[in-house]
Design a protein that fits this description.
With 170 residues, this protein is mainly beta. The protein contains two helices and twelve strands; from the N terminus they run E-E-E-E-H-E-H-E-E-E-E-E-E-E.
Length: 170
């Protein structure tokens, strides 16, 4: 999750993210109440979801650490709402906070999707984290021979009008 704080970009690695609704387009994530980053995102009322590729373990690990500069050597481009879209992500969603719910030691945050898109030239697998380690959907040998296409966008024509899509070229 990324956003803009008073002093620049902010972000954290999210442990739970999922789709909630198509109409209106809503997503959700959970965040620890002790997070020092989420209050900065809450204050602006908007955030971006960056779906990392399997090639971005280092970015995920860097954003999971507390007390470090999470943005060292991390390149990004602002979304339409000004939220950081990380270079190399498979896809991204630009959101506005719709609701926040207390859930024990976490907040459950719902966001309305305002825009979504995909970065160019990425056909890697998504980054997965399960049972304490990064994992793959399938062995890397299945990627060999995959045709490389340029300018791919993650949008589909059947999305409701509020879902504006665009591709960020690098």
């Amino acid at each position: 999750m990324t956003g803009r704080g008073d002093d620049g970009p902010v972000g954290f690695t999210c442990q739970s993210f999922y789709s909630v609704s198509v109409d209106p387009p809503l997503v959700s994530f959970s965040v620890m109440k002790t997070s020092s980053t989420y209050p900065q995102i809450r204050d602006t009322g908007k955030f971006a979801v960056n779906i990392l590729s399997s090639e971005q373990e280092d970015v995920s690990s860097q954003f999971a650490r507390k007390g470090t500069d999470k943005w060292v050597n991390v390149r990004w481009t602002p979304s339409g709402e000004g939220n950081p879209v990380l270079d190399g992500t498979l896809t991204w969603l630009d959101c506005r906070i719709w609701a926040e719910h207390d859930a024990g030691d976490h907040f459950i945050v719902l966001g309305q999707v305002l825009e979504l898109g995909a970065t160019d030239e990425h056909f890697a697998e998504p980054l997965l984290y399960f049972e304490g380690q990064y994992r793959a959907l399938r062995p890397s040998s299945t990627h060999e021979g995959r045709r490389h296409r340029r300018g791919h966008q993650a949008a589909t024509p059947s999305l409701p009008d509020p879902w504006r899509t665009r591709s960020i070229s690098r």
